[in-house]
Amino acid sequence: MRGGTAAIATAFDTEAKRGWLLVSPTAVFVLLLLAAPLATVVSFSFFTQDFLTVDYTPTLKNYKEAFTDPIYSTLMIRSLWISGVVTVVTVLLAFPIAYFVSFYVEPEKKALWIFLITIPFWTSYLLRVFLWKVILGFNGVLNSGLLSLGLIEEPITFILYNPNAVVITLAHAFAPFTILPIYVALEKIDRSLLEASQDLGEGKIRTFFRVTLPLAMPGVVAATLIVFIPTIGDYVTPRLVGGPNGLMIANMIQTQFLKLNNAPMGATLAVLAMCAVTLVSLLFLFFNRRYLR
């Protein structure tokens, strides 16, 4: 009996060692390419720099400046607002598409629909941004079309070089990232649960809100985080279509690192942006859990 227990313990010990051996290369890779750069950015945020000279004495000067200078708080609030609007718009527009593909498209044609949804990935992200710049421009496709139809008397100016253009462009760019996780969550729903709900007297609308939507929430949560987290760090789109009033915190981080040669301040803003994203994401997950209860 003791011999059998010892053999089992030895087997588990061997399996554990093999597991650690298999995981260790990936863990080392993650530490080198993710944890190490992140730790470097955090540590740099406590230093100061005067042009080419870096003072490695730990200080909170950068954080004090970030919280007291109104330009940084303005950019941070604008970034959170734009990312939040982009996330809401994208999820609201993506859910009906994912729902239609999952519930109304024939099974043998679903792969084709998913293939069509991924078509935007075929072109460069930068090219898509430039295309939206052409579409939304003063003499762009949209204004020219509306003028030719007589719907407007002069070109619309509030759709380019402002936060509206940033929201439109980012929503289009991240739409496939939103549709796919919601579609996967909807596909996992047992259709017999929906039939049971309607057999118990619930209508289609109440069945959707009480059965379909709660069961699809994991996909909605994934889509929300997939869109919200990267959009707050986007600096290409605000630079090309946002104009002065559409710039975000990532543009200031880029300016601090590349133009002002102030890496510690750029690192500070990056840390604050990550903290803000983490806090908002945790709040969203908390309220989502309360909703599912």
Characterization of the model:
The model has no long low-confidence stretch (mean pLDDT about 85). A hairpin with a 2-residue loop joins strand 1 and strand 2. The chain has a two-stranded antiparallel sheet. Helix 5 packs parallel to helix 11. Helices cover about 75% and strands about 0% of the residues. It has one domain: Orthogonal Bundle (MetI-like fold). By secondary structure, the chain is mostly helical. The protein contains 13 helices and two strands. The longest helix has about 45 residues.
Distance between the ends: 47 Å
Question: CATH superfamily, please?
Answer: MetI-like
Determine Rg (CA atoms, Å): 25 Å
Order of helices and strands: HEEHHHHHHHHHHHH
* Secondary structure: helix percent: over 70%
- From the 3D structure, determine the CATH topology: MetI-like fold
Question: What's the CATH class, please?
Answer: Mainly Alpha
Number of β-strand runs: 2
Number of domains: 1
In percent, how much strand structure appears in the residues?
A: under 5%
User: What is the averaged pLDDT score?
Assistant: 86
Residue runs with pLDDT of under 50 for 5 or more positions: none
* Largest sheet: number of strands, sense, barrel closure: 2 strands, antiparallel
User: What strand line-up does the widest sheet have?
Assistant: 1-2
General shape: globular
Query: What's the total helix number?
Result: 13
CATH architecture: Orthogonal Bundle
